[in-house]
Fold these 4 entries.
Entry 1:
Amino acid sequence: MKSIVKSRLVAGTALASLLALSACGAETAATADSAPEQTNITVEHAQGSTEVPVNPETVYTFDLGALDTMDALDIDVDGVPAANFPESLSKYAGDDYAKIGSMKEPDFEAISEGAPDLIIISGRVAASYEELSKIAPTIDLSVDQTDSMASFKEVTGTLGRIFDKEDAADEKLAAIDKRIEETKTAAADAGTGLIVMTSGGEMTAYGAGSRFGIIHDVLGVSPVAEIKADGKHGESITAEYIADKNPDNLFVIDRDTAVGESGEAALAVMDNELVNGTNAAKNDRITALDASSWYLVGYGLSNVDSMVTEVQNGIS
């Protein structure tokens, strides 16, 4: 009798254990089924198309415009180049952010060790696209200078899709559009303009369709002359050229300040009898633009708003 009871007890215990294991297995399977899967999207960019994870965990960017946009949208960035950051992005110079090379030369070893989920580049390191793509999904978010605002909006939309921030990006773009319209209204009565960058005591002019052409192409300041140059390099000019063209507004960018090099300050380079005889000088319409903002950062959500504001203030 005792053996029968004992056998029944053993069988019951075994059955209970089996049921417990089955329940545990079912719970594990259910947990696995409920775990969210990583979603990828296809991103079209300046060098092709790339499969990119949505909300990537570790993000490296060489493009300071993209960095500015991500900062405006509260998107975490983990790695940036060593650069002379403007005040608005100064926190990225600190040790909390991995340094992944310079503005022009990636540190491939450091990038590989960091195992990023996404790498963002633009013109300065565009030639490294293939090699960076071997490390992680890489996208080239260079802005097309021939249609800068449309391209900038497209790039912003791409970042919004990747990081699930489309609504916030659209809201900020709408605010920029409003500021642009205000500036275009002011530009209608502001006369002509000339964009000049100084470097090492030399002057270079930029016109419509150039890297700084937003002043003419988007904000409506009439160019004082057709600049004979491509979008990246501008046209070398002299004080005599400025005096001859006699712009109503001068917009000046000090490249030496932007890249942290010592040199004669931009306004000092232009402080001479010829330039001082122009309408721009006589009417206090020489605007020293934020060098880092214009030369290094360019097309980012916060930065474009600041750029438009600088021009608006200069011509108003």
Entry 2:
Amino acid sequence: MDSKDEYPQTPSLPPADVAEAPQAYAVDQTGQARQAGHTASPRYRELNLATLQAQGMVTHDGGRTAVAEDFRIIKRPLLRKARASGPEAIRHGNLIVVTSAIPGEGKTYCAVNLAMSIAMEMDITVLLVDADVARPSVLKVLGLPPEPGLMDVLLDDQLEMADVILKTNVSTLSILPAGRSNKHATELLASRAMSRLLAEIASRYADRIVVFDSPPLLITSEAHALVGQMGQVVMVVEAETTTQHAVKEALRQIESCEHIHLIYNKTRSFPGNDYYGYYD
């Protein structure tokens, strides 16, 4: 970890910081969307943005909520490193994995909000990957049913990633579901096929940031196979719940990773106001 700068509360940001990505879909007042002038493709899914906003999630039209401001702070150093060039360039720097030491710390919530926040950038597209293949949660959080995805691509040589990626009514956000469960998930995530897939994801689109929701580090072996191939790691720690021992052990297991960021989740600065402490 390069430094340990905590942001105990979100600073006030000027209106110019609220970057709005161009929208290819017209969103109505209920948060539903329709593709402007086109018939929705089989791989197109509508996110109910109004429902997500009501649940406290970051959305494009959700305004300057506390959560939205928090994730503006969280995403900035991640994007800076993802876009670095020359001597400062990071291998697979645009591949960001969100994990935790144990279940229940809010990693999926943070992964989805981080992807939503990055999707607001003017010149970036985001692919949100549910890589918690044992207990996939991304689609559930977004209010979508299970779909074929990552594991299906790894198991079927005839299946392309484009066959399972879901386009959404947030024009800059796509989703790669976890897909079917498999008893050899660890081996599949550590396979050459996965390495080739990650290389393709990282290099195919220069403006794409990929956010992975990973399994917890201390519970499954899949997490280690995945984290070791990422450019940046975000570890979510639940305030006043996760033990110091668990955090240290999780960090020890990924100490070979050079770029680790910590989100101290579910803390309170004062009654009624949640915030995310952030360490880089």
Entry 3:
Amino acid sequence: MSNTASPIAEAVAAGRQAVAVDAAMVAKLTDMAGDFAINLTIAILIFIATLFAAKWASSAARKTLSRVRGFRHDPTVLSFAVQVVRVVVIIVGMIAVLQRLGVQTTSIIAVLGAASLAVGLALQGTLSNVASGIMLLVLRPYRVGDVVDVGGMSGTVQRLDLFTTQLSNANNHKIVIPNSKVLSDSLTNLTGQQTRRIEIHFTVGYGDDLNQARQVLADVAGGHDKVLHDPKPWTGVTGLLDSSVQITLHAWVKVGDWWQTQADLMQSGKEALDDAGIEIPFPHQVAVPYGDADHHPIDAQVAGKVG
């Protein structure tokens, strides 16, 4: 009887031991899940706090830098510096989040160091944009508010950030150009100077008095209140065309007056030439007849009419 009870007792003991082990594992897993849930919750709170901190830090940096004379009148540098502050705060916050989730800082540095080459190759375009943005900030070929032409795309500079330059053209279209393209392509700053020259080409007939036509156009430019007197307006014959003589008018104005003054001078110049009896020739086409000799040749035919 004792021989039969012994295996039963051993089985019961083994069962109790297995139950105890299972209970210990369940308790351990429960503790781990609880710790992970707590760490995850804290990590989420840190992440949310990081976003608020980044917003607050960028706002504080903007207010602080706005008091510095070198930044106050240069929104390009101010916007760039504020964005750098925001990115730095977010990076610090993300490191804190990873540490809370159990990832050690030394491990992060080791992984980044091992993957630096691969990351550099994969993000070489992005890193090039960042480097180009810093170079643009140092070289200052334009500032926020300037009108520039980059590779045939013209617009007013709205923003310079770490990766792109944002323009707004005359039709209020938003144009986004990578900083690397801006730095490597030809760039024309149309408002980088205080003054700008207007150049308008007029045409008069070969039989008209060229000196009179030049004087009429010079008087028109000299009488406009937005045209600068130094340097004074200039007119001259700049082309002998097929059916007309080209006279060019140069006038200097302040940058902000360029568009409207050019339109005014173009209209006023045409009207002044008409009042002086100076012809602005229509384009002509000469028809050369051939074939039937009974048809009379057409010497000249007016191809269009200038209103």
Entry 4:
Amino acid sequence: MVLLKTPTLRDIPRVLSIAGTDPTGGAGIQADLKSIAALGGYAMAVVTSLVAQNTRGVRSVHTPPAQFLAEQLDAVSDDVTIDAVKIGMLGDTATIAVVQEWLARVRPPLVVLDPVMVTTSGDRLLAADAETALRELISAVGLVTPNLPELAVLVDEPVAADWPTAIEQGKKLSMNCGTRVLVKGGHLAAESSPDALVDATGQLNGTDWDVVEFVSLRVNTRNTHGTGCSLSSAVATVMARTGNWTVAVSQAKDWLQDALTHADELQVGQGNGPINHFHQLWTAADILCQPAKPAETTRQPRIDT
């Protein structure tokens, strides 16, 4: 297990995303950058995979050489103090090995892993032989945020059909890997969309099995592309500011609920479109976006001579 540095809380945390790309901007590293910025962080990015995808699915994946990934990681950490890391798509064993070695050497204080294995559209994004390496990496992070299909793969069980089963799978993964798990209920068919922060080490509230649940109403939209990427990045950013996992998940979920509520306004793509990462910012700055009023002309009195 990687021993992480003690975090130093900052008003503007420097957050590094290690993930794959999305040319349409709704998921992957593009979504991470938007989420980090929307939650008040300074966003940085190291690319693991180049993904040809859009709102309707993945077409192909190109993985650059592992050595180039290592050079990207070193270029950032040799120069910038990193307050938090969000890890997304890794793709294969060689990529995971590079990231794991870098984590052990650099020891960033906060690491959130979104184990990108299967997309909402059903596309497989992790080689089958890399699953064992991914499980080892989970033990080196502070929080892992699988969706229900990914959680099922990680505990080698069928996909949970109800919330109590999902919670039990989260407990099992937390115990097996010795880290916190954010269990996400977005794939369940229900009016609410529950999430739960599970910690088998009992470090959330001092109990043997710590489970903190967060429940929000389900937003009726198909535009949920990149939701998992965005939530994990948001949690990492807020955690680097507050130092409290429960607060980080709560604030990130509130922001995500708003981003989902206003996702349809973007009208991006013909499939599952992206969430509205900057709705709160655009609303706050709405007065600046209004068309300028024409200046009033002061008419001088006419003087007949």
